[in-house]
Amino acid sequence: MNTEREGQLASDHGDPANPISGVPTIKLFKPGKGKSQKKEVVLYTGERKAKAMADFMTYHMPSHVKTVTASSLDTYATLICVPSCIQ
Predict the structure, then answer these.
(1) Cα 25 to Cα 2: distance, rounded to the nearest angstrom
(2) Strand boundaries in the chain, DSSP class E
């Protein structure tokens, strides 16, 4: 967003600890955990290059991959109730 034209929108997405004070400002809003459900705001301070930004996002993405071994396959198969991909 253009914070100069959309000042109110920028302030609505502000975080007192990391305010949007200029451009470019890149923030990652992570969902809250636990009872508070308070969002975590991560300020990106790396290079403005595609690989650096992709690495930042990949680092912060949750992993839903579960490692299944031959000895744990039967146990795992009884616990799942939706189709899954097993590597």
Answers:
(1) 10
(2) 26-30, 40-44
pTM of the model: 0.51
**Could you tell me the residue ranges of all domains in the chain?**
7-62
Q: Which residue has the tokens 């923030």?
A: 27
At 39-77, the pLDDT tens digits run 888 889 999 889 999 999 999 988 877 788 888 887 777
Residues whose CB is less than 8 angstroms from the CB of residue 26 and which lie 6 or more positions away in sequence, other chains included:
43, 44, 53
Using an 8 Å Cβ cutoff, are 42 and 72 in contact? Answer: no
- Yes or no: say if 20 and 12 are a contact pair by the CB < 8 Å rule: no
43 close to 56: Cβ distance less than 8 angstroms: no
